[in-house]
Write the structure tokens for this entry.
Amino acid sequence: MRLFLLEPEVAGGLGNHTIFDKKKSPVEVVFLNYEFSGWLGDELLETNPCFIVTEALASTLLKSGLSGLRFETVEITVNEEFKDFHPDTILPNFKRLIPLGNVLVDGNNFSKWSGHDFSLSQKSNLIATLKALEVLRKHLINYCDITVLEEILD
């Protein structure tokens, strides 16, 4: 079995309106404010430990029947750098993608996978099945680094 470690484009970071639950370990993002500083156009983006997708990609993922994901609202803001370098860019609407599965990753290998199409590694990396990757590739993910993971068999 193969899974894929996805490292999406980072087009910004956690904005000032992001809310954390500091009682959890590791600290959990309760509400995400994604603040753009640039954007190369991909529809899957990250700022550790969070992921966002365009509403168009979210719709495709929902219709696909893939497991291990849910969506939440996200507040999108832009910083001064974005305004300076992309004055005419109109950002699409985004949703926060929350992977529900989990998987233990060690180098280019994995174990203890929950069986979901979308999972989160112990280092908050996005992990996807081939089926999920094929759906993602119907949209723009040109700047997403993809690493093949092999299952460790006992």
Summary: Helices lie at 55-64, 80-85, 130-136. The first helix runs from residue 55 to 64.
